[in-house]
Amino acid sequence: MQITRIGDFEVHQVAEYEGPFIAPETFFPDFDRAAVEANPQHPGARLIDRASGNLLFSFHSFVVKTGHHTILIDSCLGNDKERPTRPQFHRLRSSYIADLGRAGVNTEDVDYVMCTHLHWDHVGWNTRLENGRWVPTFPNARYVMGRREFAHWEGVYRNGEDSPHRLAFEDSVLPVVRTGQSVLVDDDYALEDGLWFESAPGHTPGNVVIHARSGGETAVFSGDVIHHPLQLLKPEWSTLACTDPALSRQTRTRLIEEHAERGTRLLPAHFPSPTAGRIMREGTAYTYAFE
Ligand SMILES: [Zn+2]
């Protein structure tokens, strides 16, 4: 459990899984091992598991306590979900809810759930299994989702595409729509508490990053714009999970340049702990300074 502050906001990071995930040559279709071997001290190179050769990942949520509201950013993997193409997380049984409790958050305390995008590993705890039915995990929450993002995955769902994202739309998104708890918003949505969306398309069509500002301090929940620090060494590497790899590359390159220049504090969705940090220019590429 990690706690950081953004001004008056208290941010708890609740990890559901941290460890080796996937081979870099699978995840990055343009992967080039020589580039990694030439930069052994880069945090991207160091965050490849030696034993398995897989990228080290974290899957976590952020809880933002603003003083007015309790907000969950990205609801992670979820228990009992059918994810046969992701055997590591198929019918998962994690201690996520108990871990939220350790952050002082009971499920009824969450006022808003915001998802940077609707991939399976960002919506899982939107729902939980109760008597064989998927019900909202957070009974008092509004689930804020990008209208454009929702429309895309609704299309995938209707087409019956064989993908974990279609399964997630069915078991983790539609149930909160049925209870009337979903709120579809534009990609520049803002909540009065000092959190707002910025459109960051490419990884998914309606992908966003979420800005936070409180007491003169700022940070960006950057979601899956940058999955792994290796993409700071090679910003052009999109992933097998990107809907539009070319647009994803363009968005990622723009945001990396911008945040390196501004020294923005980032809270990415998959960087292993301590997760939060800043992008810095290094030679012709970039590196990451973990806090
Ligand atoms: Zn993700």
Strand order of the largest sheet: 1-2-3-4-5-8-9
Count of alpha and pi helical runs: 9
Q: What structural class is derived from the secondary structure elements?
A: alpha/beta
Q: Main β-sheet: number of strands, strand sense, barrel status?
A: 7 strands, mixed
Radius of gyration, in angstroms, nearest whole number: 18 Å
Task: List the uncertain runs.
Answer: none
| Integer average pLDDT | 97
Report how far apart the termini are.
15 Å
For the record, the CATH class is Alpha Beta
Give every kind of bound small molecule, once each.
zinc ion
Q: Helicity range of the residues? A: 25-40%
Q: Give the name of the CATH architecture.
A: 4-Layer Sandwich
What is the CATH topology classification name? Answer: Metallo-beta-lactamase, Chain A
Domain module count: 1
> What order do the helices and strands follow?
EEHHHEEHEHEEEHHEEEEEHHEEE
Count of β-strands:
16
What's the name of the CATH homologous superfamily?
Ribonuclease Z/Hydroxyacylglutathione hydrolase-like
> Quick one: overall form?
globular
Content of β-strand: 25-35%
SSE inventory with pairings:
Blueprint lengths: L1 E5 L2 E14 L1 H4 L5 H5 L5 H4 L8 E11 L4 E4 L22 H7 L9 E3 L5 H4 L3 E4 L2 E4 L5 E5 H13 L4 H15 L3 E4 L4 E2 L3 E5 L8 E7 L2 E7 L6 H4 L11 H18 L3 E3 L8 E6 L2 E6 L1
Parallel strand pairs: 4-5, 5-8, 8-9, 13-14
Antiparallel strand pairs: 1-2, 2-3, 3-4, 6-7, 10-11, 11-12, 12-13, 15-16
Helix pairs in contact: 6-7
The structure holds zinc ion.
Zinc ion binds next to α5.
